[in-house]
Amino acid sequence: MESASQDINLNSPNKGLLSDTMTDVPVDNTVSARTSAPEGLTEAEEEELRSELAKVEEEIGTLRQVLAAKERHCGELKRKLGLTTFDGLKQNLSKSWHDVQVSNAYKKTQETLSQAGQKTSAALSNVGSVISRKLGDMRNSTTFKSFEDRVGTIKSKVVGSRENSTDPHSPTGSGDKSPQDNAPF
Question: Number of C-alpha atoms within 13 angstroms, CB side, residue 159?
Answer without folding.
Answer: 16
